[in-house]
Design brief:
The structure holds two protein chains of two kinds.
Chain A (H helix, E strand, L loop, with lengths): L18 H6 L14 E7 L5 E8 L9 E3 L24 E2 L5 E7 L5 H6 L1 E7 L6 H6 L10 E9 L2 H6 L3 E9 L11 E7 L3 E6 L4 H12 L6 E5 L12 H16 L3 E4 L2 H7 L6 E9 L5 E13 L5 H11 L9 E9 L13 H19 L3 H8 L19 H12 L1 H12 L4 E14 L5 H5 L2 E6 L5 E4 L9 H13 L6 E3 L18 H24 L7 H15 L2 E6 L8 E2 L4 E2 L4 E14 L4 E12 L6 H20 L5 E2 L2 E2 L18 E6 L16 H4 L1 H13 L5 E2 L3 H8 L18
Parallel strand pairs in A: 1-12, 8-28, 10-11, 14-15, 18-19, 24-27
Antiparallel strand pairs in A: 1-5, 2-4, 2-6, 3-5, 7-15, 8-13, 9-10, 9-12, 13-14, 16-23, 17-18, 17-20, 21-22, 23-24, 25-26
Helix pairs in contact in A: 5-6, 8-9, 9-19, 14-15, 15-16, 17-19
Chain B lengths: L7 E5 L2 E5 L7 H8 L18 E4 L2 E4 L12 E3 L12 H9 L8 H14 L5 H7 L11 H11 L14
Parallel strand pairs in B: 1-5
Antiparallel strand pairs in B: 1-2, 3-4, 3-5
Helix pairs in contact in B: 2-5
The chains are: A alpha+beta, B alpha+beta.
The complex binds FE2/S2 (inorganic) cluster (FES) (2 copies).
The site of one FE2/S2 (inorganic) cluster has 12 residues of chain B, from loops.
């Protein structure tokens, strides 16, 4: 049978590769795994935001001889978690910088004995003054990190903003804030570790980036790379929350395993996971914008600050992505973005779907509506007049070489949502009803892959091989945690090799087996790693044609027969390729200028909301998402990414509040940290416009993070349409609506953010 | 398992089982640790997420809130009992085709909640599906494709415009 039919698998909604195991309850998550002689581990944490550890005492009720106790003194290598800057200790050594800092580890064969034992460790501190907010940190009266509390700053400049402001017909200024957000993956963090003097450290865990954990363990244990092995277990959601934290918990479990001589499992309960692991960075963005009489942007001056928490972790790269997304999808000749990430004495903030872009997008897209209101223009028209088009340059002077179809996306979003007629109807009806309805919009892009030179530094390696049993395996360290890695990469390999979807499997996500294809982050898997798999597959075909007489047209059986001929003559059948930047992609780290991302995914979101002015609750009634993210490899999976991201972002906008007391999360339970349920999520309509991207895996760009960027501003814009109030902070809870909308006897409702000078 | 505890007997997925464990041990832990039925998951341990949902005497319960003592003599259904002779249950098949499972950690509980819903109401409306699944949190899917999976498994439903309504 000829197999030359085009595109049979890419573009088809084949079922998720590991789907059947998940549906049968057979998939093995870390807590489902037992090892012979396994013990359990627990973590003793600090209880003050900042201070010196003066003494550690063990109570007399506990028989401590049954336990293994690990402190910083037991660490054979470096006491830090290896990431960008090595500032975060694996275990506190004399000083703590946030309430939940790990200080000491315990292991015992019976997990039920651990909770009491943790309570039996008493720690005395000499407190130091903490800082908790961006404002306290930037005042620098109390320095809690480095010499100035500053993790990182960027200055992005294009043109001359002063010239733009001098020529302005309108200047609009406002400040926007976003709070922390918790990932709330339903599977908590967990790891099992084994230690053996001969073979070294092996860990199994719920994680996104096996080689990040690998690198951290190599440093903590001072072992050579071949003595550390990291295996990802089935992972029950991640969203960025299992990007860097697993390096911490894996180090802890492995230290306990080394000292106890047993395999050790450390699985957090929900409270510990919420309190001790990373969250989305809180932000404050000040926008000052100059426009001409027609509503064209003349200058954008943006001051962006994030709260990074106690250690730098990923704050610098999150800040970079926030900076690059701050000006929005608009053309402006004069732009200045000044951004800074500040240290505070809370749990370190980390990676979370969107990685700084949702914060930046909230500010600019809320601000566009504030501008429109100020200058008396339709917010849709204001956006349309300023959209980027093909050939335009962004704030980093990147020329848009690929098609930019914002107008088309906008037209479709307006038509599908019936935007204008609904907006008019609601405006008419609202006067007569306590339920105020409104329509809101957001326009945005999300850069796919690592920022700037990131992909070049990563220098990823990936490939395919063929087993003697007649299976093609995809060799990557890119992991599956629900977003579809397994399915999409095997689809790309099957398509390129012209085989069946069933002929291709994933090699186990085990650093002992697969090469380092980079971390599973940054919407890079389908585009960057997918392209590596496509190239490796093409290279394999060439090899088989050159050395094993594979014909140009071949059947499935002929393919595998050629593989066996190759194996007999040359050994293992496989092909590895390294990352190559698409031509013309150059980034200047020094000047912070150039091709910030090889490709952008684009979207228009529309929200329809209802605000109940009796109960002060806001509800999203319907949602439309129109996007262009290159070729859609698997429509069901891609649609699921978009819907899931929108639901999570509805939570970000209207439900999810991290309440900090003394820098510690006070509501660290699912009973009081509230995410949207099946009854809260509106109908979500998802539409794709497809423009294959030449340098992405079978034409793909990134899709995973894009949907989290737009909902918050679209929803708050709709609330402004409904109520006339320009809210500038999320989460926007009923008490916040009440504070602004409740009738006030003596004074007129104030709009705090629009003290605007019109020149 | 210790012989010190009196045996507690119940039926799991049609099979009689007996465990000797403390009477207050959570049914969730008994299923996972003593019977090695690890399909049932723990997401919160406090009755909020529904990952631990199982059916007990035809009722949907959060097994993290049930002391095993309460299960004495009960008939318990878990995700492991849904498929038969290697064939997926219609709900499992629908979840597979419609994209109802992403990371899969909520899926066993979600399948039990959906089974329970369809047992009581074979052709639920979308509103009834939302209500029936409101105790089961999913952080990945935004629920939309879970609703579609339930609709597909139910064959038809009242007042729904079909999956194409949500994803084109
Ligand atoms: S684990 Fe039982 S409801 Fe969450
Ligand atoms: S599929 Fe991941 S939580 Fe539901």
């Amino acid at each position: 049978m000829g197999m030359s039919q085009k595109n049979r698998i890419v573009g088809a909604s084949v079922p998720r590769k590991e789907g059947i195991d998940k549906l049968l309850g057979r998939a093995r998550y870390v807590d489902d795994i037992e090892r012979e002689g396994m013990w359990h581990g627990a973590t003793v944490r600090g209880s003050i935001p900042r201070g010196f550890i003066r003494s550690i005492r063990f109570d007399r009720r506990t028989d401590w001889s049954e336990f293994t106790v690990v402190t910083a003194a037991d660490i054979p290598g470096k006491n830090h978690i290896q990431l960008i800057v090595a500032d975060q200790p694996c275990l506190a050594d004399g000083v703590v910088n946030h309430c939940d800092e790990p200080i000491l580890l315990l292991a015992h064969p019976d997990k039920h004995k651990l909770r009491q034992a943790v309570a039996g460790v008493e720690i005395e501190y000499e407190p130091l003054p903490p800082v908790f907010t961006i404002e306290e940190s930037e005042r620098q009266d109390v320095v809690v990190w480095g010499s100035d509390n500053l993790f990182k700053s960027f200055l992005l400049e294009k043109g001359d903003v002063d010239v733009g402001f001098a020529a302005a017909a309108h200047i609009v200024e406002s400040e926007y804030r976003t709070d922390a957000q918790e990932h709330l993956y339903i599977e908590n963090n967990g790891v099992i570790a084994e230690y053996d003097a001969e073979s070294g450290v092996t860990v199994w865990g719920s994680l996104q980036c096996p080689y990040y954990v690998h690198r951290s363990l190599v440093a903590v244990f001072a072992l050579s790379e071949d003595k550390v092995r990291v295996i990802q277990t089935e992972t029950g959601g991640a969203f960025g929350g299992k990007e860097d934290y697993p390096s911490m918990i894996a180090s802890h479990a492995a230290l306990l395993a080394m000292k106890s001589g047993h395999p050790v499992k450390v699985v957090y309960d929900r409270m510990e996971d919420l309190a001790a692991t990373t969250k989305r960075h809180p932000s404050r963005v000040r926008q000052r914008t100059a426009l001409d009489r027609e509503g064209k942007l003349l200058a954008m001056e943006i001051d962006l600050a994030t709260d990074g928490g106690a250690y730098s972790t990923l704050s610098s790269t999150v800040l970079s992505r926030a900076t690059l997304h701050a000006p929005g999808p608009y053309l402006c000749q004069n732009v200045r973005v000044r951004s800074r990430s500040w240290a505070t004495n809370t749990v370190p903030y980390g990676a979370f779907r969107g990685f700084g872009a949702p914060q930046a997008c909230f500010a600019i897209e809320r601000h566009m509506d504030a501008i429109a209101a100020q200058i008396g223009m339709d917010p849709v028209e204001l956006r349309r007049r300023n959209f980027l088009h093909d050939g335009d340059t962004t704030a980093t002077e990147q020329v848009m070489r690929e098609p930019v179809i914002l107008d088309r996306l906008l037209d479709r979003a307006l038509a599908e949502s019936d935007f204008y007629s609904k907006r008019e109807r609601f405006a008419r009806e609202n006067a007569a009803t306590p339920i105020k309805r409104g329509m809101g919009i957001a326009a945005f892009y999300h850069g796919s892959g690592f920022t700037g030179s990131g992909e070049r530094y990563l220098n990823s390696l990936a490939g395919v091989d063929v087993t003697p049993e007649g299976k093609v395996r995809v060799l990557v360290s890119s992991t599956e945690f629900g977003q579809g890695t397994n399915t999409v990469l095997t689809q790309i390999a099957a398509e390129t090799l012209r085989l069946h979807y069933e002929d291709v499997t994933m090699a186990p996500p085990d650093t002992g087996i697969v090469p380092n294809s980079g971390p599973t982050v940054a919407s890079r898997t389908a585009m960057v790693v997918g392209r590596l798999i496509e190239r490796a597959s093409l290279q394999l075909l060439e090899m088989l044609r050159a050395k094993a007489a594979l014909g140009n047209e071949y059947s499935r059986d002929e393919f595998f027969a050629a593989c066996e001929r190759y194996r007999a003559g040359h050994g293992e059948v496989g092909s590895l390729v390294r990352y190559e930047a698409p031509p013309g992609i150059h980034w200047d780290d020094q000047r912070y200028r150039g091709e910030a991302y090889p490709a952008y995914a684009w979207a228009i979101h529309v929200a329809q909301v209802a605000v109940d002015t009796v109960t002060y609750s806001a509800e999203v009634e319907e949602f439309w998402a129109v996007q262009e993210a290159g070729r859609i490899i698997n429509p069901v999976l891609a649609g699921g990414q978009v819907e899931g991201g929108i639901a999570q972002a509805i939570g970000y906008a209207l439900y999810e509040k991290v309440i900090l007391q003394n820098g510690h999360m006070a509501n660290s339970q699912m009973t009081n940290y509230i995410m949207p349920t099946a009854e809260d999520v509106p109908p979500i309509h998802v539409f794709f416009e497809e423009i294959p991207f030449r340098h992405g895996g079978c034409g793909a760009k990134g899709i995973g993070e894009l949907p989290h960027d737009g909902p918050a501003p679209a929803i708050l814009n709709a609330i402004m349409d409904a109520t006339g109030v320009s809210f500038t902070r999320i989460p926007l809870l009923p008490e916040d609506l009440f504070a602004e909308l409740a009738p006030r006897p003596a004074s007129v409702s104030t709009r705090p953010v629009e003290e605007t000078a019109t020149v | 398992m210790s012989a010190d505890w009196p045996a507690i007997r119940f039926i799991v997925n049609g099979e009689s089982r007996a465990v000797r464990v403390p009477a207050m041990k959570r049914l969730l832990d008994v299923l996972r640790e003593d019977l090695r039925l690890t399909g049932t998951k723990e997401g919160c341990g406090e009755g909020e997420c529904g990952s631990c949902s199982v059916r007990m005497n035809g009722e949907l319960v959060n097994s993290c809130l049930v002391p095993v003592l309460q299960a004495e003599g009960a008939e318990i259904e878990t995700v492991e009992g849904l498929s038969s002779n290697g064939a997926l249950h219609p709900l499992q098949q629908a979840f597979l085709e419609c994209g109802g499972a992403q990371c899969g950690i909520c899926t066993p509980g979600m399948l039990m909640a959906a089974t329970h819903l369809l047992a009581r109401n074979p052709h639920p409306s979308l509103a009834e599906i939302r209500e029936g699944l409101a105790g089961n949190l999913c952080r990945c899917t935004g629920f939309i494709r879970i609703f579609e999976s339930v609709i597909a498994a139910a064959g038809s439903t009242r007042g729904h415009r079909g999956p194409a309504d949500h994803a084109r």
